[in-house]
Amino acid sequence: MNQQLLGILIAAAGLILLMLELASPGIYLGVLGTSLFLGGIAGLIWKAFFWKAFSVAAVAALFGSSVLFYLFYRKTSTFKNIQVNSGALAGKSAIVTEKIDPVKGSGKIRVENEIWTARADEEIEEGSEVVVESLRGVTAMVKKP
Fold first, then answer.
1. Which CATH number applies to 86-143: 2.60.120.10, 3.40.50.620, 2.40.50.140, 3.90.190.20?
2. What confidence tens digit (pLDDT) does each residue in 87-99 have?
3. How far is CA 35 from CA 3, 44, 48, 50, 112, in A?
């Protein structure tokens, strides 16, 4: 196989990996794709020194693209400080989606687009606004504001 064809194949493989990364962000194919693409291009440019150029370009591209992808994902990631303990909902406003009945022990609320089982010391009608006081297990303890 000649060096020009090898450079084209390596660059093409890099482009395919980059497209896969764009189609499904977060699987980190972009780093490898960038390295292969730049290494293949370097091989096409410096035909006489193909393997030396490929090695240097691939290592530089791998390092550089790793840093760039890390910064990109850190900036665009939707995983911020997510609090999952009882303090996550305490003090939040919510809307009653199913009547809260302390006698039956039933009721549901919507808080931040999530539905929670809710309990209160008094009956609260559907559509009412409430405030989450605390969590007991997976049940929100609420009261009228």
1. 2.40.50.140
2. 678 889 999 999 9
3. 18, 14, 20, 15, 41
